[in-house]
Amino acid sequence: MNDAAPAPRTLLDRHRYAVLFFSLLLTVAVGPLLEAVNFGRTAMEAFLAINLLAAVFPIVAKAERRTLYALIALAVLLRWIAPRGAQAPAMSILAALAWGTIALVAAYRAVRHSLSSVRIDAERVYAALSAYLLIGVCWGVVYAAVARVSPGSLLYAGAVPPTGIGMGDAIYFSFVTLATLGYGDLTPATPAMRGLAVFEAVIGQLYLALLVARLVGLQTAAHSR
Q1: Quick one: pLDDT at residue 184?
Q2: Is 110:128 a contact under the CB 8 Å cutoff?
Q3: Per the domain annotation, does 2 fall within a domain?
Q4: Which of 39, 53, 159, 174 could form a disulfide with 43 if both were Cys (CB 3.0 to 4.6 A apart)?
C-alpha cells in the first residue's frame, strides 16, 4: 500500500477551482483595502494578473489555455500602458475587453465543470462560486475602464470624485450591484454605465436562481439512485 503524500502538483490539479475561488475572494476583500492605504495601482494590477492566471489554470484543453495565456499577456500590457499617451481611453477599453473575454471563457468553463457530474463535491461548488466572483471582478474592471474614459459616468455622493474611480472602488461597486445591495454611495450617471449596472444585476440574480436550482436537481437525482 502506497501511503506517500500526494505531490504538490497533484494537489493543485485536484483543487484548481478552490485556488481560483480563494484568489478571487482575496482580491475582492483586499483590493479596496489596498487603495485605502495608498498601496498604489501596481498592487491591484498584480492581483488582477494573478486572478487571470488562476482563472485560466483549471482549463484542461492545452491549446485553449495557451491562447488565453497570450490574451492575459495582452491584457496586462494594455492595462499597464493605458494611463499613458493620447490613446489611453482606447487602451483602457481594449484592456477591459481582453479581461472580459478571459473571464467569460473561464466562467463558462467553471459552470460546465460544476454541472458535469451528478455527484456534487466541494470542487464543483468552488467552480460555481468562482464563476459568480469572476462576473463581479470582470464587471469591476469594465466599470473602471468606463470611468477612466468618461470621468463623470460614476459619481460618489452625487459628485465626480476628484481623484477618479480606482479599481478597488469599481470592484466594490460591481459587487454591490451584483448582489443588488444598492447602498447608493456610488451611482451610475450615464446611460452606458446604467445599462452595464442593470445588466450585471439581472445576470447576478438569474445566475444564482438557475444554478442553485440545477445543483439541487443534480443532488436530488444522485440520492434517488
Answers
A1: 85
A2: yes
A3: no
A4: 39
For residue 180, the domain's CATH number is 1.10.287.70
State which of 44-58, 155-169, 180-194 shows the largest mean pLDDT.
180-194
Residue 127 lies in a domain: yes
Any domain includes 3:
no
This prediction has a pTM of 0.83
pLDDT of residue 178: 93
Which pLDDT score is estimated for 93?
78
Neighbour count for residue 192 (Cβ, 10 Å): 13
Question: Which backbone phi and psi does 181 adopt, to 5 degrees?
Answer: -75, -45
Burial of 45 (0-12, 13-18, 19+ CB in 10 A): middle
74 vs 2: which has the higher pLDDT: 74
Question: Averaged over 9-32, what is the pLDDT?
Answer: 80
Is residue 23 packed enough to be buried (19+ CB in 10 Å), middle (13-18) or exposed (0-12)?
A: buried
**Total structural domains within the chain:** 1
The verdict on residue 4 lying in a domain is no
